[in-house]
Amino acid sequence: MPADFSGPQDAAALVLQARALAGAGEAARQLLNGKNLALLSPSKDDQSASEFVQAAAALGAHVSLVQPGLDARSSARQVEDTARMLGRLYDAVECQHLPAALVQRIARSAGIPVFAGLATAAHPTTALAAELDGDASPADKRRRILQAALIVSMA
After folding, report:
1. Domain housing 147
2. CATH number for the domain including 106?
3. Residue 3 located in a structural domain
4. Dihedral, CA atoms, 102, 52, 118, 17, nearest 10 degrees?
5. What is the pTM of this model?
6. How many domains, the chain?
7. Considering only CA atoms, which of 1, 48, 45, 19 is closest in space to residue 128?
8. Distance between CA atoms of 10 and 1, rounded to whole angstroms?
9. pLDDT digits (tens, 9 = 90+) for 65-88
10. What does the DSSP 8-state code read for residue 153?
């Protein structure tokens, strides 16, 4: 199953990690240093794709845009082979604008954290930004929640 952070314990862990990031300063820039993330999305120009890249890069990760090449009609073997290859090349995968069933199939075979639209406005973690204290902008709070999700899932 893709990592969705929809449970109450998951949400609490993300908020706690996001609060810690707020005080981490320069040290946060190294938390994902050397990690390679894949962004499976038909478009790199999408707002949520840009937000994911910025959040990960601010932690030191490298993000590669990967054209999915898969759809709901892809054979089980195609999905499994692609997912295993992604698992060898990357430390985590963010899937945006892909069918939920396809993302679930990828997550079963990848062997790494797979996110289903983590940086999209429709993701359950979006609401968690409101739980963060301080006078940071809503965009900065959302970015911290995204970063917390990456850190928690890749630790």
Report:
1. 8-154
2. 3.40.50.1370
3. no
4. 140
5. 0.90
6. 1
7. 19
8. 15
9. 998 888 888 899 999 999 999 999
10. H
